[in-house]
Each structure stands twice: as structure tokens, then as C-alpha cells.
Request: fold
Amino acid sequence: MNRKVIQITAAALLFSLSPLILADEKVSMRANYFSDNTGTVVKSPAAEFVKDLFGGFEFGLRYSLDRVLIPPINSIQVRPTDGTTGASRPAGNADKTYAKNRSEIIATLSKDSYSASYYYSNELDYVGRMATIATNADFNRKNTNIAGSYSFGWDNIKPTGIDTALTKIAHNINATLTQAIGPKTIGRFGVDFAYLSGFQSNPYRIVRMQNVNIIPIENHPLQRLRGAFFAKLNHYFESKTALNFEYRFYADDWAILSNTMNMYYYQYMKENVLIRYRYRYYTQSASNFYQDIYTGQQAFMTGDYKMEAFSAHLFGLKVEYKLKKLLDDGFFSFLAGSTIDAKYERYFSSNDFTADIFQFGLVLNY
Amino acid sequence: MLKKTIIMFWLIFGLWALALAPGQPGVGSQAWDFTLESFDGEKVSLHDFSGKVVFLNFWASWCKPCGEEIPMLDMLQKVYMKEKFAVISVNVDNNKENALRFIEKHNIRVRSVWDKEKQVVASYDVETMPTSFILDGNGKIRYVHSGFKAEDYSRYKQEIENILGKKKRMKTKKRRPSRRQAYSEKR
Amino acid sequence: MREIFLLSFTGILLIIFGITFNGCVAIKPYERELLADRVMDFDSIDEERVMERHFLETREGSVGGHGGSGGGCACN
Reply:
């Protein structure tokens, strides 16, 4: 784990010192620490860099590693927990902590208003891939921007201890409108649609049955149509503060409806210190095949907590410091504008789940 | 019904007309004169530079491409130091301190003025940040540049030399008259 | 399904509204100083969101609602 962190950091720094450095470039490193009340711990270092290439192209690369530790399963009737990254645990060695690495890489190439990206993630039993193309256009003297993207995803699932190879295909489209409403106000509105077909269950998760002698593995439908509408509004106040408000409505054909409200309040304390307060509220309905305990076998059954009705709150605080004074003079002055940040967030839901998230970041701007 | 349709048509047309670019001075038109205060405290007027090729640039400290362009204007000033050429950079920051900090940080030497009320930038109706106008010695706009990319620098030089080239005097060597010529003139 | 159709309709309507009535809003490029501030940029916390998405999409039944592009100083 430490070797991987060192490798990621070294690669990021090496790339950042490349003689190809031009304007508008960035190297950032983040470290995420997650722990929840089920005992799951996830440590995620990540590095990202953006570089201008010749011919007006811009290249971005992001690498992250999730080290997931899932606690022992106490009883076969208790739902196995998932790692924060979706990493699931097999049932074998249930009395031991299960450790898993998941790595993810995203490469993006863009020029003017077109971009293409490729996503690849890999863990022991799951390989995920996605290719995306996106474009955008400005209207009304750049007061209006319309963006669209299409993604195609194809995943391969090879559950541990199960001699079956499974696949999942996903099509995603997005359309977004960004509109400057005033010199201090800007809005963004959009829709997302996704169509998934293939394996969408957890191959290790069991379903809770009234008859404890029957222990089926969950079985979700093979098709899913998902859609979301979102609206965002940012407003800047005279007192060097800003409020960002987001709302999302989601619906799918498994009958899950959800509402999400997210608020960020920014405050400049000094010229180079920025504080951000955050509150998020989420509520969803249950899927049409969800039951807490099944009385008998059904075509579709789930043991997934994501399928039940619940609500959740998230509170957070982030502090960001601009490395201005340290970098204004001398050799490192070209890094002026770089920042370090630290954040803490607390998540808790009505289905008795709580989590603490810590994140540290270093962003070097050229 | 027809009356309502006509009113709706003109309403929608009017809204579209608002979206169209109004009067940015174009190539060939006369640049509008202005007087602004520089960051050194002196009054700077465009008509003071009559007879010179002027590179008029609108910029802001919060605009990244502007920050990339400004040091190149310094270079242009140095390259054409001996020519009848001047750079005027007009800053449109809300806060003068931000502009001053930027000028000090990048050691900017070109003449910079502050358009506090944003009246000059409004009269030139710039469509994007940064925007540059290259004026000839008579104050006529010869070239307009919206935005900035690194490769624009060589284009700027070419355009400035195009204008300067017409104003350059043809320098010829003064020849001594031949003996026969001098003798015939004497006679 | 009805909700999905409603979503589609609302989204398309908004986009048409945005294009058709954009003549009402004309913020000049030199008036965008505050819009260019990082705290007003929708995409400035994208890296943070990528990590957050890992967590939220394994705890909650919803995805999407992020979008991209546009805003900021609209320079160049």
C-alpha cells in the first residue's frame, strides 16, 4: 500500500517537472480516508495532472487506488457490507477482515470544445471500462453554454469462488445548459439518462428470508433505465462569500425516486484562506422488488441497502489555503496559486449507517 | 389573432436582436478617443499617441489568457522600442489592488491604465477577454483580436510590421556626385 | 417510467428556453470577474466529486446529476 502511494506521488511529481510544461497546467494529489460504523475502512490516494500538448490539445490523467478493508461477517443473516468503492467481499473466510485493492485510471484528451476520455478500473473480481465523448458550444457571447456527452461502459465480473463470467453494458447520455444570469449569479441545468443491461446484482450478497433455511443470493433485473434532472445555482455576495445550491431529482424503472439537495457556503477569511461549509440532504423511495425480509422466493430479490427507502444527511467543513506568500518569491514562484486543503464530512442515514470522511489535497497550478 | 401573432413575432425578434453583437468598432473604423488614469497616476489619452502605431489591449487580472498575453506585450514594446509604436493596456478589474498586484508580480512595463467605470471597454464593446485592437498612426483600427493563444505573438509582430512598413521611410545612401557632374554644375 | 418522461420533457424544455430567450441575458465579458472566481465555478471541485461519487453511489440508489462545461470567465 505504501509503495503504491509513493509510486503515485513520484509519477505525479516527475510528470510535473517535464520540459513540456506550458500554461494552464496542474498536478493534484489527494488522499481520502473513509470509515463507517460497520468497520469498513477505505484509504484512497489519487493523483491527477493536466498538461497542454502541441497543436492545442490538452491531456489529463488521473490515477487512484482504493485500499478497502471489509470487516468479518458476524452472521450469515447480516447483510455483508460493501466497501465505499463498491468493492464487495466474498463469503469465504467470513471471520477474517477482507482486504481488497481497486485501482482506477482515467485518461482525457481535449481540444477546443471536444473531448474524449477512457476510464478503466480493476479489482480482483471486477473490471470496469467506459469510453466517453463530449462537446460543448457557447451562445449569446458565452453567457450560455450547451454541453452534451455520451458514454459507453462495459464491465466484466468474475466473482471469486464462482465459476461464471458476467457482463454489464451501460449507455449514458447527458445534456447540460449553463447560463450566466447576472454578474454574480450563474445557473446550470441538465438531464442524465442511463440504460444498463446485464448483471447488476452483488454475487456475494444474500437475501433475508423468513425461512432461515433458505439462503438465496440476490437477483436484480437485468435491465435498468435511470434518469436524473439537476439544477444548480451559484451566487456571490458582497461580503466575499458565495452560496452554491444544487438539486437533483432521480427516477428509474425499478421505481426508485430520490431527491437530493446540496448546499455549499464559501467564505474567504483572508485573501488566501477559504472556508467551505456543506450540507446535503438525500431521500429515496424503495425499489418495487425490495422487501426487508422475504416470505418466499420471488423473481427479483435484493439484500441491497441501496434498494430500501431511507434518508441521509451529510455535514462537512473544508479549509483551503493558497500557498501565495510561500511561493511569491524565488524558485517556486511559478507555483503561486497552488493550494492545500483539508476536509471532514460526516454522513448518517435513517437506516443506521454513519460514516466519517477525511480528505487532504495538494493542487499545484502552473 | 393576426395582431397577436405580429406582436409575438416582433417580441421574439427583438429578443434575438438583443443577442446579436451591437457596435464593436470594426476594422477600418476610427478608434474612439479616451482619457484614463495610469497606475502611476498620470493621465493617458489615446490622442497623445497620434502618429504612432498603437496596440490597445483590454485585460483583467482574473482572466487567465490575459495573464499569458500581457508579458508578451512587454516583449513587443521592447522589440519596437525604436519605432513609432506604443502599447496601451486597459485594465478592467473591479479592484485596483488586484491589478497592481498582478503588474508587480509579472513586472509589467507597458503603459497600463485603469478603466474604473468600465466606460471605455463598454464603448469598444469587447466580445471576449482579452481583446486587442491594433491602430495605425491615424487612429484607424487595422486589426482586431478576440482572445489570445501563444501563437498569436508572431501574428501580432507581422501585423505591426505591416503597418510600420508603410510608414517607414526608405533610407537611401547619399551618393557623392561624379567629377564630370560636379564640373558641369560648376560651369 | 412516467417520471422519466417528465424528466426528459423538462430537460428539453429548459434547453429550448435557454437557447430561445438568451437575448434577455447579456453579461459583458468584462463583468464576469466574480463569475470567474473559483467558488463560482461548477467544475472546480470535480476531483473531490469523483472520490465522493465512489462512496455515494455504493450507499445510495441514485446516480448522475453532475453535468459539465460552461461558466467561469468565458475568456478566449
The longest strand of chain B covers residues 53-59. Chain B touches chain A through nine residues (CB under 8 Å). Chain B has a mean pLDDT of 82.
